[in-house]
UniProtKB/TrEMBL annotation:
Residues 22-287 form the Luciferase-like domain. Pfam families: Bac_luciferase. This is Monooxygenase. Signal peptide: none annotated. InterPro entries: Bact_Lucif_Oxidored, Luciferase-like_dom, Luciferase-like_sf. Keywords: Monooxygenase, Oxidoreductase. Gene3D superfamilies: Luciferase-like domain. One of its GO terms (molecular function) is monooxygenase activity. SUPFAM superfamilies: Bacterial luciferase-like.
Length: 333
C-alpha cells in the first residue's frame, strides 16, 4: 500500500523568459497540493536552464501552500558551503511550518575541471567532497556548536550554533544515493534515503534487484531498521486523460531514452530504469512487479524534463486521481 505520493520536477525555463518558467513550477506545486499530493520535490541544476536555487523557489512555494511537504532531490553539496546552506534550510523550514525535506548528495561538482576556477578559485585542490561535507551540514542543522565564540560585541549578540535553528529539520534530511556504499552510509548516519531512476551496477545488471539491495542495505544500517524512510523516484507517465497527441509525445520520449536502460553506462556502470508510460492500471501492474517498489511506501515520481506545463497538469492529475488510488494511496487533503 502506497502511503505517501510525491512528484519531482526540474523546473525548466526559457533563457529569454526565466520568470515564466519559475512561475510554472510554483503553479505546479500549488496544483499538487490541491490534488492531495504529500510532497513536491525540486531537482537542482547549475549553469543550465533549470532551477539553480531550489531553496529560494521552495521559500516562495512555502508562502503559496499550507500542507504539502517541500523537498530537494538533490542539492549537490560540492557547490555549497554547508554552514551557509544550513542557515538557508532552517530559514525556509521555519517559513514553511516544518515542511522542508532537503535531499543532499556529495562528490565533485559536475564538469568540475571546467567550473572549479569559478567556484573555488583558490581552494579547488583542497576542497573535501567526501561524506564529511554532509557531516558538516548535519552538525549545523542539528544545532551543534560550530564556533567557540558566544556573547555580545557592542550591541550585537552572537551564537555558537547556526541561527535560526529549526528543531525538527534534522529528522527530515535525505541522502540521495545510487550505490551500496551510499545506502549504508545514509543508514549509519540516521538520514532518510532517496533512491531514483539511476543506480550503480555493482552486484547485478537488473535495475530492480540493484535498487532492492540498496533499500535493504540502508535499512540494515539504520537505527530505525525496517521503519527507516525510503523514497523511490522512478519516471512514470500515466495517460488516462491524455490526448492522442500527448500519448504519442510521451511514448516517443520514453523510446528515445530506452536504449540506455539495457546495459550499464560509462565507467561508473550506471543503470537507468525504463520510463513507464501507459494507463494507470498498466503502470500499477508494472510497479507491483518491481522488487524495490514492493518494499517501500513512499514515492516521488519524476516528471519528464522537457514537457509543457499543460502536460504536467494532465500527468499530475492522473497520478492523483487514477494511479495513486490504484496503488492504495489516498490523498492528504
Amino acid at each position: 500500500m502506497l502511503r505517501k505520493l510525491g512528484f519531482l520536477t526540474i523546473g525548466l525555463f526559457d533563457e529569454a523568459d526565466p520568470a515564466r518558467g519559475h512561475e510554472s513550477t510554483l503553479e505546479i506545486i500549488e496544483l499538487g497540493e490541491r490534488l492531495g499530493f504529500d510532497s513536491a520535490w525540486l531537482r537542482h541544476r547549475h549553469l543550465q536552464f533549470g532551477i539553480s536555487s531550489p531553496v529560494a523557489v521552495l521559500a516562495a512555494a512555502s508562502q503559496r501552500t499550507s500542507r504539502i511537504e517541500l523537498g530537494t532531490a538533490v542539492i549537490p553539496l560540492g557547490w555549497e558551503n554547508p554552514l551557509r546552506l544550513a542557515e538557508d534550510l532552517a530559514t525556509v523550514d521555519l517559513l514553511s511550518g516544518g515542511r522542508l525535506n532537503p535531499g543532499l548528495s556529495v562528490g565533485p561538482p559536475m564538469n568540475f575541471d571546467r567550473v572549479k576556477d569559478a567556484i573555488y578559485p583558490d581552494t579547488a585542490d583542497a576542497e573535501d567532497f567526501s561524506y564529511a561535507r554532509v557531516e558538516r551540514l548535519l552538525s549545523s542543522v542539528r544545532g551543534e556548536q560550530v564556533t567557540d565564540f558566544e556573547g555580545t560585541v557592542g550591541f550585537e549578540q552572537f551564537s555558537r550554533r547556526v541561527q535560526p535553528h529549526s528543531p525538527g529539520l534534522a529528522s527530515r534530511l535525505w541522502y540521495g544515493g545510487g550505490s551500496l556504499r551510499s545506502a549504508q552510509w545514509a543508514g549509519e548516519h540516521g538520514m532518510n534515503f532517496l533512491t531514483s531512476s539511476v543506480v550503480k551496477a555493482e552486484e547485478s545488471e537488473d535495475f530492480a534487484e540493484i535498487q532492492l539491495s540498496h533499500v535493504r542495505a540502508f535499512r540494515a544500517a539504520h537505527p530505525d531498521g525496517d521503519k527507516a524512510r525510503v523514497s523511490q523516484g522512478l519516471v512514470v507517465i500515466p495517460t488516462d486523460s491524455a490526448s492522442a497527441e500527448q500519448r504519442a509525445k510521451y511514448r516517443a520520449y520514453a523510446e528515445q531514452r530506452t536504449p540506455r536502460t539495457r546495459s550499464p553506462q560509462g565507467p561508473a556502470r550506471m543503470m537507468f530504469a525504463p520510463d513507464i508510460v501507459g494507463s494507470s492500471a498498466e503502470i500499477a501492474e508494472r510497479l507491483e512487479g518491481h522488487a524495490a517498489f514492493r518494499e517501500i511506501d513512499e514515492v516521488a515520481f519524476a516528471l519528464p524534463f522537457t514537457f509543457d506545463h499543460d502536460d504536467y497538469v494532465q500527468i499530475l492529475t492522473d497520478m492523483a486521481t487514477h494511479l495513486g488510488p490504484a496503488l492504495g494511496w489516498r490523498p492528504g487533503l
